[in-house]
Design a protein that fits this description.
Shape: globular
Helix content: 25-40%
Strand order of the largest sheet: 7-13-14-15-16-18-17-19
Strand content: 15-25%
Length: 547
């Protein structure tokens, strides 16, 4: 890790020190065991099997995110940038040069830039008041595109109208050097470098701002933006999927189902430990369950293949390492999967024998004796920017309506959230769409998308619906301040919040909480739900009777 420490120091933008002072400081940093993964370090993927595809049988592929630039232009504030980001943006810009985009396509891009500009305002507000509204995904992307590569930025300004970022260099450095998020006096470059706390900072939703892979400052998120732009202008086409499918277990009165959300990070080096995704998978394998449902999100963009035709993120970060040990598995569509038009989900995951029961469909129903579990693809037809809100189309609505007329209890599983993290408000239009098509609120609803684990009370906006957020499968996060009252107790809308601190954390893990998953045990009309942390320790249990 000495190389990583040295590069972190050398590449900090705007740090101007005497050569003697710089040499001393670099020597000190080299002695510190940073848990940032070295750019040329090789990931080891235990249990990585083959992935069945309609085009070919993929053997365990090389991680697209591991292929990161190590030169000066390949680093951003000391953090390595996936080459795939640069490769795809160049390919997209070359395509735009050759293609005459319509006014409608240009307008869509301009609207997206405007939305990212609005999200930057939330970042600036957070810097001055850490309890302000949580910035939405993509809030730092304009800054990255304007500051990573001058040539690339100029091409994007010329071809796609990239606007300037309202976040200044000083603002961004405050994100890296302020662990409290409050106002601070402008400091010298030497002082700012000494101030860098590897633990970072948290926003009110528990999102982590530090150098950890998949934290908010990870430049890899720019891959999501690159592919989303490609989809938005028509360079990427939406993959065809199968008709909604029904899997009949109506003769089963009892069934055990594992549920995990936002698990598709792949396995990576988390300091000296296995990554959360690996620990979660090993823990899930200990349960003798019948079915496992992944609530969606394979990172960064769930790609089918790289620019040069190699297997993409979907294969490496999800399908090839998916092995919960259950006879049946199901996977939901999600916003990150949509950045590549669900091509990775369709042609890698749903073509795999591991998900054969799903029959290439992204909408499905699992019929039990007393229950019907309806899986909905809330990303595929979502008109919101970056597919962040969630929505249904009429075909899914009719399918949900049909399942609701079965006379059975209805559980809905989606990627997108039905409630805000604190449980105070419904996420519309999605909640209203589910209610309208079903003709009532569902009996049970489990979602992901927000990278936290929570059980909502009957005082929440869910009302009589048993509502759960189980999106804490793998992404590094910390405690969300919106979940607590001033006395430290949970807000009344939340019955349980998975906020166990990391045991014996290193410096980058100091603010983090444990990831986890859920287990449902159906027996007639009752369901015993259990929440486990990534080590397999039981954190929450309750038996719900729906008679």
């Amino acid at each position: 890790m000495q190389e990583e420490s040295t590069l972190l120091v050398l590449s900090m933008k705007g740090v101007l020190m005497s050569s003697l002072f710089r040499s001393i400081l670099i020597s000190l940093f080299c002695l510190l065991p940073l848990s940032v993964q070295a750019a040329d370090e090789q990931d080891t993927i235990p249990g990585c099997g083959s992935v069945q595809s309609s085009a070919a049988q993929y053997q365990c592929p090389d991680d697209p995110a591991k292929d990161r630039d190590t030169g000066v232009k390949g680093r951003f504030y000391g953090m390595s940038v996936p080459r795939e980001h640069v490769r795809y943006l160049n390919e997209l810009l070359d395509w735009v040069d050759r293609t005459e985009l319509s006014d409608q396509q240009y307008q869509a891009v301009r609207q997206f830039w405007a939305e990212l500009g609005e999200r930057e305002k939330d970042v600036l507000a957070m810097l001055n008041e850490p309890t302000s509204e949580t910035p939405e995904d993509g809030s730092l992307l304009l800054y990255f595109l304007n500051h990573y590569d001058a040539i690339m930025s100029e091409r994007m300004k010329r071809n796609l109208g990239l606007p300037d970022s309202s976040i200044s260099v000083y603002d961004f450095e405050r994100l890296m050097t302020s662990s409290h998020g409050g106002k601070s006096d402008k400091k010298t470059d030497d002082e700012m470098l000494f101030d860098i706390p590897l633990e970072g900072m948290l926003d009110s939703g528990g999102n982590l701002y530090n150098l950890t892979r998949y934290a908010q400052l990870d430049p890899g998120w720019s891959t999501s933006l690159a592919y989303y732009l490609g989809y938005r202008v028509g360079h990427i086409k939406l993959a065809p999927v199968g008709e909604p499918v029904t899997v009949d277990f109506s003769d089963r009165d009892e069934m055990s189902i594992l549920v995990v959300g936002d698990w598709g990070t792949g396995y990576w080096h988390d300091g000296g430990r296995p990554s959360p995704a690996q620990q979660v998978m090993l823990s899930m394998q200990k349960h003798p369950a019948d079915i496992t449902i992944h609530l969606g999100d394979e990172y960064y963009a769930g790609t089918r293949e790289t620019v040069d035709g190699k297997p993409g993120e979907e294969a490496f970060n999800f399908t090839s390492i998916w092995n919960p040990g259950t006879p049946y598995s199901f996977a939901l569509g999600s916003n990150h999967g949509m950045y590549d038009g669900e091509n990775g989900l369709r042609y890698i995951t749903l073509d795999s024998s591991k998900f054969a029961s799903q029959k290439q469909a992204t909408t499905f129903a699992i019929l039990l004796k007393e229950w019907v579990i309806v899986g909905l693809d809330t990303a595929r037809y979502d008109p919101s920017d970056l597919f962040l809100k969630g929505a249904l189309n009429e075909e899914q609505g009719r399918f949900l309506q049909e399942m609701g007329q079965s006379g059975k209890k209805v559980m809905v599983v989606t990627h997108h959230n039905g409630l805000s993290l604190d449980g105070k408000t419904q996420n519309n239009p999605l909640w209203n769409q589910v209610r309208e098509y079903l003709g009532r609120d569902p009996d049970y609803w489990i979602w992901a998308h927000i990278h936290q684990g929570a059980v909502y009370s009957d005082q929440s906006a869910a009302g009589t619906t048993a509502a759960r957020c189980w999106g804490h499968g793998a992404i590094p996060v910390g405690r969300a301040s919106v979940m607590y009252q001033s006395d430290g107790s949970l807000v009344p809308e939340v019955a349980y919040y998975s906020d166990t601190p990391y045991p014996d954390p290193d410096r980058e893990q100091k603010l983090r909480i444990l990831n986890g998953y859920g287990l449902l045990k159906f027996s007639g009309h009752s369901v015993t739900e259990q929440m486990y942390d990534q080590h397999g320790s039981l954190q929450w249990q309750d038996t719900l009777n729906f008679d």
